[in-house]
Specification:
globular, about 80 residues, mainly alpha
């Protein structure tokens, strides 16, 4: 069963609505999202354990999460003294 908004936020924390929509549209499960997050967070231990590179939905989710991590943070508003 695919994830809903609250489940995605529960796994990833607050994320953009576009990211939530992309993840929900993938049809991914919570386990698949957790695995993709593990790959994006630190792939070295997974590679060292002999796991194949992510493919299918996990690979798709890893791409979405990688783009999320690459996006620059929102700039702080300029405050006048």
């Amino acid at each position: 069963m695919s994830l809903n908004r609250s489940e995605i936020i529960g796994i990833l924390g607050e994320v953009d609505d576009v990211i939530i929509a992309q993840i929900a549209a993938s049809g991914a499960t919570a386990d698949e999202l957790a695995e993709a997050r593990a790959w994006v967070s630190n792939d070295e231990p997974l590679l060292n354990s002999g796991r194949p590179l992510p493919a299918g939905r996990v690979g798709q989710l890893a791409e979405i999460l990688t783009k999320l991590e690459e996006e620059p943070a929102e700039p702080e508003p300029i405050r006048s003294p």
